[in-house]
Specification:
CATH architecture of chain C: 3-Layer(aba) Sandwich
Number of domains of chain A: 2
Radius of gyration of chain A: 20 Å
Largest sheet of chain C: 5 strands, parallel
Order of helices and strands of chain C: EHEHEHEHE
Largest sheet of chain A: 5 strands, parallel
Number of domains of chain C: 1
CATH superfamily of the largest domain in chain A: DsrEFH-like
CATH class of chain C: Alpha Beta
Shape of chain A: globular
Oligomer: heterotrimer
Helix content of chain A: 25-40%
Number of helices of chain C: 4
Number of strands of chain A: 7
Shape of chain C: globular
Structural class of chain C: alpha/beta
CATH topology of chain C: Hypothetical Protein Ychn, Chain: A
Chains: A alpha/beta (182), B alpha/beta (86), C alpha/beta (117)
Chain lengths: 182, 86, 117
């Protein structure tokens, strides 16, 4: 079977589902010929299939001086709402500062850390910060605080402090890697 | 597959314009939406919230299609790779 | 999988360039097919004779010199970015392939993942 440009023929059947609306998504790139390759039960014509995709996000921008932590959150929420999944969020460069639990945003600004934590909890999302980038910027979990004999740990517990290998492993494991560069 | 270019600044758009292919999609996001002030020829998508937040909601730009984040998710699902231009 | 690192920042604007190179080296360890495209100010990372220690940094060109040891040998530079800065290949510290715009289109289209600095 020849895959269509959209690669439909490669889709594992278990991952193919009908959209909740039961109509073709306007932006679906499925050609009619691609759809007919699906083995529908006799007499049933499915008008639209969508594949659940796994995304991973790299977030690089400083929460205080760029928008990337904010837009990455909006994108992550839309991803989950669309039925796709987030494999891991990897905060790198200045993005690691989002994990600092000592942030006190002004009352008239939204609390991005809180929003990330609530969203991650609700959807069992893996939030990770790069250990090397975090150490350099004074974002330490208890292990690192003890190892480097610093005064206080400040990583919010919802974040795992991990190596760069987790960034690459996520990209290898996912259908799409999206970077918010900051 | 064709690429999706995420444009985070007007400078990013200038840098990528030379190397996009006809079937690629371009999405202006964050400060990238200011590029609508410079480019009226390229077919672009732009995040509505980012336009509105910056006071660009009334800008008349026939080349720009406004989308929300779920539209961005659709674009991401339809393209590979996703290329970010800061 | 094919990974492309698109590097567009100058070498010493904070640690961004150095951290991106760390990520490239890790991708090399994961045995992926990794290539690097230096574009815009990113071409400045390749200049010879840098002395990053004067700024309290590792020299970025020396970090880049480790790439071939990780079997990352597909290094490309944007022809236009070199020309805009009046740079020639003999001023660069690593052997790189110069790509015009069509070459860059082809390179990007072949990737699964594009990473940034």
């Amino acid at each position: 079977m020849i895959a269509s440009p959209g690669g439909v023929a490669e889709w594992p059947k278990a991952l193919v589902l009908k959209t909740s609306e039961g109509r073709p998504s306007e932006s679906s790139n499925l050609s009619p010929s691609a759809i007919s390759m699906q083995s529908s039960p006799p007499g049933v014509s499915y008008d639209c299939y969508r594949r659940i995709m796994m995304f991973c996000l790299n977030v690089h921008g400083d929460p205080a001086s760029s928008q990337s932590v904010h837009s990455a959150l909006q994108f992550a929420k839309a991803t989950v709402a669309s039925g796709h999944e987030i494999y891991r969020v990897f905060f790198y460069h200045d993005g690691v500062r989002i994990a600092d639990c000592n942030q006190v945003p002004p009352q008239d600004e939204s609390n991005l850390l809180q929003q990330w934590i609530e969203f991650a909890e609700e959807h069992s999302l893996e939030l990770t910060v790069c250990i090397a980038a975090a150490l350099k910027r004074g974002v330490l979990n208890e292990d690192e605080r003890a190892r480097y004999e610093r005064v206080a740990a400040n990583v919010y517990p919802a974040f795992s402090v991990v190596g760069l290998g987790q960034q690459i492993e996520a990209a290898i494991s996912c259908d799409r890697t999206i970077t918010f560069p900051g | 597959m064709t690429s999706l270019h995420l444009i985070f600044s007007a400078k990013g758009l200038r840098s990528c314009l030379g190397i996009i292919q006809p079937e690629d999609a371009l999405l202006l996001i964050e400060d990238g939406v200011y590029a609508v002030l410079e480019d009226s020829a390229t077919r672009l998508h732009a995040i509505e919230d980012d336009l509105v937040a910056r006071g660009l909601q009334n800008l008349h730009a026939d080349n720009v299609q406004r989308i929300d984040y779920s539209g961005m998710v659709e674009l991401v699902a339809r393209h590979q790779p996703i290329v970010s231009w800061h | 999988m094919r990974f492309l690192y698109l590097l567009r920042r100058p070498p010493y604007s904070g640690s961004l360039a150095a951290e991106a190179i760390d990520s490239i080296l890790v991708a090399g360890v994961f045995d992926q097919r990794v290539s690097v495209l230096f574009k815009d100010d990113g071409v400045l990372q390749l200049l010879k004779d840098q002395q990053g220690q004067l700024l309290g940094h590792r020299s970025v060109n020396k970090m880049l010199a480790a790439l071939p040891e990780y079997e990352i040998e597909e290094l490309f530079v944007c022809a236009r970015s070199l020309a805009e800065r009046a740079l020639s290949l003999d001023q660069l510290s690593l052997p790189v392939q110069v790509l015009d715009e069509v070459g860059q289109q082809t390179l990007i289209a072949a990737q699964n993942v594009v990473m940034n600095d």
